[in-house]
Amino acid sequence: MAWFSKRQTLKAPPEGSKAAGPVPAKKGEGLWTKCPGCGAVVYTEEWEAAWNVCPSCGHHDALPARRRLEMVLDPKSFEELDTEIVPEDPLGFSDSKKYKDRLKSTRKATGLRDAFISGVGTIAGRPVSVGTFAFEFMGGSMGSVVGEKVTRVIDRAYERRCPCIVFSSTGGARMQEGIFSLMQMAKTSAALARFRHVRQPYVSVMLHPTTGGVAASFAWLGDVVIAEPKALIGFAGPRVIEQTIREKLPPGFQRSEFLLEKGMIDAIVPRPEMRERLAQLISLLGS
Ligand SMILES: [Zn+2]
Predict the structure, then answer these.
(1) How far apart are alpha carbons 124 and 136 in whole angstroms?
(2) How far is the centre of ligand 1, averaged over its atoms, from the C-alpha of 42 (Å)?
(3) Looking at 40-179, which runs of residues are DSSP E strands?
(4) pLDDT band at 4 (very low <50, low <70, confident <90, very high)
(5) Ligand 1 mean position to 6 CA, how many Å?
(6) 35 Cα: distance to centroid of ligand 1 (angstroms)
């Protein structure tokens, strides 16, 4: 079908070619964005206006956490909370770099305090308690601060009797905090058990990728679990599973489409429809 498409997209020339045309290197940094999915070269402005979704192939590229909130919430409705909690280094952990130094440099590079942004806002005029992982901060790993923030998002929804929405994009527990990271799975799950009593919906949105301890706790405990197209979702990675069970995994294993077919998630929602679908869900299920 793509052969007949009249959409005008520019293909990047092969590596090292001298093809004339508006390729990124000729026009200055950042003016063009090359789609990692199909190689189409798109104006960065157009790319960002489409929330980092390729207009040619529909590839969903990573979207910074703040942009995601901007995309789904009513304009200027977001109030960020829990900004006072910052991670400590309870184990004095060090790998190739000290955990403390890693935090410091990541904070400087991303402008974020940790891998989660939490607060309250409205969607189509309805109040929601909302939080999103920031994959750009240490792979969205969940340490004690991220776990505390997720718990607060759920607790705030409990106190305010409003719907709760969490966007997950994470590699799982933060190994630098060891057991303190692992206990966040129980803590967030317990908060959700309490939230059940207020009979408001908890919508979990799984983004690419959602793995490890986050997938194994609150991300999969949503009343409604939705995912973006082709997101990698699972507990352990495919290579680890293949080595453990000594079997070849089926194609598309652990991707949204496969999980939907097997009944593990409720819906796949493309990014441009996300805001509308969330508004529908909280209006149908909220009170
Ligand atoms: Zn593309």
Answers:
(1) 28
(2) 9
(3) 40-43, 79-81, 116-123, 126-133, 164-170
(4) low
(5) 15
(6) 5
**Tens of pLDDT, residues 187-205:** 999 999 999 999 999 999 9
Q: Per-residue DSSP letters for 233-269?
A: B-SS-HHHHHHHHTSPPPTTTTBHHHHHHTTSSSEE-
Q: Which SS3 state, helix, strand or coil, does residue 168 take?
A: strand
Would you put residue 220 in left (φ > 0), alpha (ψ -120 to 50) or beta?
Answer: alpha
Residue with tokens 């977001």: 78
- Rounded Cα distance between 4 and 2, Å, is 5
Tokens of 50: 């489409």
Q: Per DSSP, what are the bridge partners of residue 42?
A: 33
pLDDT classification of 237: cutoffs 50, 70, 90: confident
Q: How far apart are CA 170 and CA 227, in angstroms?
A: 13
Closest CA to 95 of 174, 181, 209, 183: 174
Residue 226 neighbours by CB under 8 Å, 6+ apart: 203, 204, 205, 206, 265, 266, 267, 268, 269, 277
Q: Which residues of 160-184 are buried (b: 16+ CB within 10 A; e: fewer)?
A: eebbbbbbbbbbbbbbbbeebbbeb
The DSSP H or E segment spanning 10 is strand 10-11
CA of 219 to the centre of ligand 1 (A): 28
